[in-house]
Amino acid sequence: MSDLDGRLLAAHAREDRAALIGLYTEAGDSVNDFDAACFYLTHAYVFALEAGAPEAAALHGRLKAAGREE
Q1: Measured distance CA(56)–CA(53) in Å, rounded
Q2: Band of pLDDT at residue 1, cut at 50, 70 and 90
Q3: Phi/psi class of residue 69: alpha, beta or left (left: φ > 0; alpha: ψ in -120 to 50)?
Q4: Mean pLDDT to the nearest integer, 47-65
Q5: What is the DSSP secondary structure assignment for residue 45, as one 8-state letter?
Q6: Distance CA 40, CA 23 (A)
Q7: Digit-coded pLDDT (tens) for 9-52
Q8: Cβ atoms of residues 9 and 17 within 8 Å
Q9: Which class for 25: exposed (0-12), middle (13-18), buried (19 or more C-beta within 10 A)?
Q10: CA quadruple 52, 49, 38, 30: dihedral sign
Q11: Measured between alpha carbons, how far apart are the two ends of the chain, in Å?
Q12: CA–CA separation, 2 and 59 (whole Å)
C-alpha cells in the first residue's frame, strides 16, 4: 500500500472531508492515467460539494475541462 493509499484510508476512517478533498485531488494530480485522474478528481469534487468547500468550484472547472462534467 502506498503512503497516499494509507492516508486516504485513514481520512475515510476519521470521516475527515477536508482531508479527503485534498488527498483525492493529490491522487488525481499524481497519476499518469487520464481516466484514473478523473476518477480521483470526481471523488474530491463530491466530497467538496458535500462539505460546501470552496475547492468545489475549481474541481468542477477541472472536470468540465476534461469533458467529465457539464
Answers
A1: 6
A2: low
A3: beta
A4: 98
A5: H
A6: 9
A7: 999 999 999 999 999 999 999 999 999 999 999 999 999 999 99
A8: no
A9: buried
A10: positive
A11: 34
A12: 24
Give the burial string for 29-54 (b: 16+ CB within 10 Å, else e). eeeeeeeebbebbbbbbebbeeeebe
User: Contact at 8 Å (CB) between 70 and 40?
Assistant: no
Residue 23 burial (C-beta neighbours within 10 Å; 0-12, 13-18, 19+) = buried
Reported pTM: 0.94
Domain ranges of the chain: 3-65
Q: Give dist(CA 67, CA 69) in Å, integer.
A: 6
Q: How many CA atoms are closer than 13 Å to the CA of 33, on its beta-carbon side?
A: 5
